[in-house]
UniProtKB/TrEMBL annotation:
Example GO biological process: cellular response to nitrosative stress
Cofactor: heme b; FAD
Pfam families reported for this sequence: Globin, NAD_binding_1
EC nos: 1.14.12.17
Protein name per its UniProtKB record: nitric oxide dioxygenase
UniProt xrefs under NCBIfam families: PRK13289.1 (NF009805)
GO molecular function annotation: FAD binding; heme binding; metal ion binding; nitric oxide dioxygenase NAD(P)H activity; oxygen binding
Location of the Globin domain: 6-143
UniProt domain FAD-binding FR-type: residue ranges: 153-270
Protein species of origin: Penicillium antarcticum
Length: 419
């Protein structure tokens, strides 16, 4: 492990002074970093998402994280939500303390390769100290997360016990542990990592999928959209499939095995919130409905019958929407559940008032304020979907007076470095 001596005031000032350098060269540094590290350690290809390497998302996200870190080096509390999110993801990938040695070495070497003589020995040492300061915090948090997982501290074999098509593009997988032991409960909204061999790459890959049902001791359910990646330089050419979702949809079937992590994630309805009486509004778009369906299924099976719930969902067309029949049948059982469906591009067969309520993207202004409980100072809001969708929904709610602490959303990544 590297040095974890506290950073000096001079080193903190040097890190702050490199913020403009990260704006200019951050993406190049992280692209060189991933290239060199994965060339020297091909075994790490299983840990890093190859699709996100090809589309440039991962280097951009890491550059954004470095930029955010350097900008807040003198006030790390501003980063605590981002650190919590990353540590949960790391735990779900079984990242170990020794992995930080490799990342630190290749990151500093990439800075040297890109910046040349501009990376003076003092700046090099300041970044070394900064890296280990953050790594130490993360290693500590990840250790706590592993300790909380009741001995489940490595990949575990699971069998697909059912595979159910939920919409034109989303299929559910029911996953039961091969060892037959009861599964730990999770907080509704959390995810698992799923790892399987990808023949096209000749190595395994892991992805995080939100659990889409309430906790059950016999199986976990995930509901996966079949993804195709579009080449941004040539949008007509689909060049890189979403590896795991395609293997799951096309290759793996009932009876097949794959590897699963303990559930993790910091976007959830906590156990203490399941037995209160405040209204809950669940707002999602596309496959973002999965963690919110887990929350919905938990609330409708646990909470007092007077609790008011509203499920708001946007889909491209009604055939792409998962769980519409499930939600309709829950509404019959549970009169306090309301649902509003938006369809952005209704197909010729889609009927307004039958298959959906409103044409267009989710627009909260089209929903009566009282059905969104905007006058209830305790109502809670959960949002999941494309990033811009979430930030738009959040600003609308804030504009209507909803306080930040009552809005939860799952924002992966830092948005990269500013342009
Ligand atoms: N736990 C988590 O954090 C999870 C997150 N997700 C995220 O949810 C997202 C769902 O994507 P996917 O199913 O592919 O979505 P789709 O592309 O199928 O879009 C779903 C709907 O969202 C609309 N939409 C897209 N962007 C916006 C926007 N900026 N504002 C308002 N509406 C918008 C689309 O409208 P239009 O047709 O006009 O584009 C469409 O009606 C992904 O980004 C995924 O990462 C998903 C599952 C779990």
């Amino acid at each position: 492990m590297g040095s974890i001596a506290p950073m000096t005031a001079d080193q903190i000032a040097l890190i702050k002074a490199t913020v403009p350098v990260l704006v200019e060269h951050g993406n190049t540094i992280t692209t060189v970093f991933y290239r060199n590290m994965l060339e020297a350690h091909p075994e790490l290809n299983t840990v890093f998402n190859t699709s996100n390497q090809v589309n440039g998302h991962q280097p951009r996200a890491l550059a954004g994280a470095l930029y955010a870190y350097a900008s807040h080096i003198d006030d790390l509390s501003a980063l605590s939500a981002a650190v919590e999110l990353i540590c949960n993801k790391h735990a779900s990938l079984y990242i170990k303390p020794e992995d930080y040695n490799i990342v630190g070495k290749y990151l500093l070497e990439a800075m040297g390769e890109v910046l040349g003589a501009a990376l003076t020995p003092e700046i090099h040492d300041a970044w070394g100290a900064a890296y280990w300061q953050l790594a130490d915090i993360m290693i500590g948090r990840e250790k706590q997360l592993y300790e909380q997982s009741e001995g489940w501290t490595d990949w575990r074999d699971f069998k697909i016990v059912d595979k159910v098509k939920e919409s034109d593009e989303i299929t559910s997988f029911y996953l039961a542990p091969v060892d037959g032991k009861p599964l730990p409960a999770f907080q509704p909204g959390q995810y698992i990592s799923v790892q399987t061999y990808v023949p096209a790459l000749k190595y395994s890959q892991a992805r995080q999928y939100s659990l889409s049902d309430k906790p059950r001791s016999e199986y976990y359910r995930i509901s996966v959209k079949k993804e195709t990646f579009v080449n941004s330089a040539d949008p007509a050419a689909v060049t890189q499939p979403g590896h795991i979702s395609n293997v799951l949809h096309d290759t793996l079937n009932k009876g097949d095995t794959l590897q699963v992590s303990h559930p993790y994630g910091d976007f959830f309805l906590s156990a203490t919130e399941t037995d209160t009486a405040h209204p809950v509004v669940l707002i999602s778009a596309g496959v973002g409905l999965t963690p919110l369906t887990s929350i919905l299924n938990t609330l409708t099976s646990n909470c007092p019958s007077n609790r008011k719930l509203h499920f708001v969902h946007g889909a491209r067309k009604s055939g792409a929407r998962a769980f519409s029949e499930h939600i309709a049948s829950l509404m019959k059982e549970y009169p306090n559940l309301n649902a509003t469906f938006f369809t952005s591009h209704p197909s010729a067969e889609d009927k307004e008032g039958v298959d959906y309520h409103h044409a267009g993207r989710v627009n909260l202004q089209k929903i009566d304020k009282k059905d969104l409980f905007l006058d209830d100072a305790k109502a809670q809001y959960f949002i999941c979907g494309p990033e811009k969708f979430m930030t738009d929904m959040e600003s609308h709610l804030k504009g209507q007076g909803v306080s930040t602490d009552r809005i939860k959303m799952e924002l992966f990544g830092t948005g990269g470095v500013p342009h």
